[in-house]
């Protein structure tokens, strides 16, 4: 939080939260420390009690199952942050970065250490299938059949108006520079759970920015040390 560019993101989020539905930042912890706040957003949106919600593209198929058509709702990409909002803003198009371009295509292949049935020959077949299913042609087919997962892969095309509206494909798929946080279980479930509580406290005016900053940094340091100890990683060579 001592880096003003990093701290600025939370200040912008606080400004943005003033436009949210009252009590929408109340934090609810799941059994594994996950945030359950988004699970209730779809119901009031369907009941016309909310004008706008921030959800994944999985919402498309849910609306379709409920009989909604493309003409009944619109989709906008994640807005870019400009110089008018903060002097730290860059010119990078981040509209596709929120979940894409990987989205559902996050496959994991086990090794013989995780699965004793895995052999080099079997692994070769698995990788070959992944190469097949993730080509633009086949990726497009899966996306359009499911009606979810914005197709940001170059060469794919969406067949529904809702998906088309959400697409702002980049010129290249070179990933931007990002910093993983602690809210996605990057470190530990405890870090995510406590992180949401601290952030909620700041957004609901229970914590000042100074208090939030201090607690946030302490949490990151504590949980990073816990992660390093658990995974036998020596962090000293990465620190200056």
How would you portray this structure in words?
This protein is an all-alpha fold. The chain has eight helices and no strands. Helix 7 packs antiparallel against helix 8 (209-231). The radius of gyration is 21 Å and the shape is globular.
Q: What key attributes describe this structure?
A:
single chain; mainly alpha; 8 helices; 240 residues
Q: Which structural category fits the helices and strands?
A: mainly alpha
Rg, rounded, reads: 21 Å
How many β-strand runs? Answer: 0
| Average predicted confidence as pLDDT | 80
Instruction: Please trace the helix and strand order, writing H or E for each element.
Output: HHHHHHHH
Structure annotation, total helices: 8
- Show unreliable segments: 29-36
**Secondary structure: helix percent:** 40-55%
Any chance you could write out the topology, listing elements then pairs?
Elements: H1 4-17, H2 42-46, H3 58-65, H4 120-133, H5 136-146, H6 161-166, H7 189-203, H8 209-231
């Amino acid at each position: 939080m001592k880096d003003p560019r990093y701290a600025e993101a939370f200040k912008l989020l606080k400004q943005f939260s003033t436009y949210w539905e009252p009590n929408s930042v109340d934090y609810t912890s799941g059994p594994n420390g996950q945030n359950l706040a988004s699970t209730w957003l779809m119901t009031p949106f369907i009941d016309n009690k909310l004008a706008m919600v921030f959800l994944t593209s999985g919402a498309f198929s849910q609306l379709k199952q409920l009989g909604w058509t493309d003409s009944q709702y619109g989709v906008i990409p994640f807005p870019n942050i400009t110089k008018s909002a903060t002097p730290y803003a860059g010119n990078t198009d981040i509209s596709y970065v929120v979940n894409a371009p990987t989205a559902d295509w996050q496959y994991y292949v086990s090794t013989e250490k995780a699965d004793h049935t895995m052999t080099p020959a079997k692994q070769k077949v698995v990788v070959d299938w992944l190469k097949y299913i993730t080509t633009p042609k086949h990726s497009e087919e899966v996306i359009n059949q499911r009606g979810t997962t914005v197709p940001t892969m170059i060469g794919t095309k969406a067949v529904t108006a809702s998906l088309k509206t959400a697409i702002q494909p980049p010129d290249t798929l070179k990933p931007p520079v990002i910093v993983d946080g602690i809210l996605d279980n990057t470190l530990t479930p405890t870090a995510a759970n406590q992180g949401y509580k601290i952030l909620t406290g700041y957004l609901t005016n229970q914590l000042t920015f100074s208090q939030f900053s201090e607690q946030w940094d302490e949490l990151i340091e504590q949980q990073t040390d816990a992660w390093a100890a658990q995974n036998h990683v020596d962090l000293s060579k990465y620190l200056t």
